[in-house]
Amino acid sequence: MPTLVHSMTAVSRAEKTVSVSLGARSYDVLIGPGLLAETGRLIATRIGKAKCGIVTDDNVAKHHLATLEASLKAEGRYAGSIVLPAGEATKCFARLTELSEGLLEMGLERGDLVVAFGGGVIGDLAGFAAGILRRGVRFVQIPTSLLAQVDSSVGGKTGINTPQGKNLIGVFHQPSLVIADTDVLATLPPREMRAGYAEIAKYGLLGDAAFFSWLEANWKGVFGSSGPDLTKAIETSVKAKADIVARDELETGDRALLNLGHTFGHALEAWTGYSDRLLHGEGVAIGMAQAFRFSEAERLCPAGTSERVASHLTAVGLPTQLRDIPGGKADADTLLRLMGQDKKVREGKLTFILTRDIGQAFVARDVDPTKIRAFLEQEIAR
Ligand SMILES: NC(=O)c1ccc[n+]([C@@H]2O[C@H](COP(=O)([O-])OP(=O)(O)OC[C@H]3O[C@@H](n4cnc5c(N)ncnc54)[C@H](O)[C@@H]3O)[C@@H](O)[C@H]2O)c1
Q: Using N-to-C axis directions, what is the helix angle for 332-340 and 369-381, rounded to 10°?
């Protein structure tokens, strides 16, 4: 089994390094304040000579693009920047075409780098473009949302959405380096910060009860700007994800645990049309609360567990119930149909991540859809 190396380095101020061990495709995740301005040097020393084509969105560009461009220009590695509209709708075929052609126009060659500079939307789209450009060029993730820093920038899943569902088209393509600058989170809207926190809580809930208890006691510090609690929460989350990805890169087993809350959550996102009514992390928060309520109803986990989970999510300001989504309730048949579109469907049976307790999630591959339907009816009536 590949081992996980985790160490402090002196590359920059208070930086932590988590290594993702995947043989020839191994890479480091650098976490800490002040890293963005160091990008040119970090790429030069860790990857070598390569031109960099930046892909970002208009929100991130407004606040941080000048710093990144200056850093790459100082090392003579800047090839150009492509700025796309912010939002989930950008993760689509039309933008993939526009982006791929833009990167070719920029003159990126096989040895060059795509730099995905943004939240999960930009990371997924730019990573996919890098995976298919000239049959695959390397890319660097510079995640700027909390969700992207703790989850989507690590692990190599890339892709786009289609009317049939989320992330149904894509490739596995691991980045060559991930640079998570905690300072850039200062400009992230509070609602997006909370949505990213849902994925942090997920790591505690799925496999690390002590981390969940730590979050219950320290979550206010995690929301403090660039402090040690924020770095610790990101580092612990990335370490957990790196460990699972190293064990199961292509999601044939354990990696599915990372989908805790996602089968419910993806259906809710599809139902709300990937709109502002429900952010991805908010869908995951409701989905995790539902996974615990369903597990408790099935007597898989102790009574009271789902209440503890929901209390913590509520304390940080995350939704936990269908009624928390503005604009009306879904019906059970629609949600069940949308779950059927999820990639976690095999031979008509639904796969859910269920739990035996906090920190003890497991993959349940043959959940009876009629039980889920009855559960959804209860959820709608809550
Ligand atoms: N590949 C994976 O393993 C994986 C895992 C989880 C989620 N995802 C995907 O990630 C996406 C969600 O990611 P997200 O929540 O980062 O969404 P996002 O990329 O849409 O970013 C959220 C919002 O925050 C803005 N933003 C980002 N960084 C900012 C900053 N520093 N300052 C100001 N504004 C900033 C963005 O412009 C956007 O408006 C979904 O598409 C989801 O499917 C992928």
A: 140
What tokens appear for 350 in the block?
């639904």
Mean pLDDT by 10 residues, the chain (382 residues): 40 77 96 96 94 98 98 97 95 98 96 98 98 97 98 97 87 98 97 98 98 97 87 97 94 90 91 89 97 97 97 98 89 88 62 96 90 93 88
Nearest residue (CA) to ligand 1, atom 2 = 152
CB of residue 35 inside a 6 A radius of ligand 1: no
Question: If you take atom 9 of ligand 1, which residue's CA is the nearest one?
Answer: 120
Which residues are catalytically annotated? Answer: 135, 157, 199, 241, 251, 255, 259, 262, 266, 280
How far apart, in Å, are the Cα atoms of 147 and each of 83, 219, 355? 20, 15, 23
Cβ of 91 below 6 Å from ligand 1: yes
Q: What is the pTM of this model?
A: 0.93
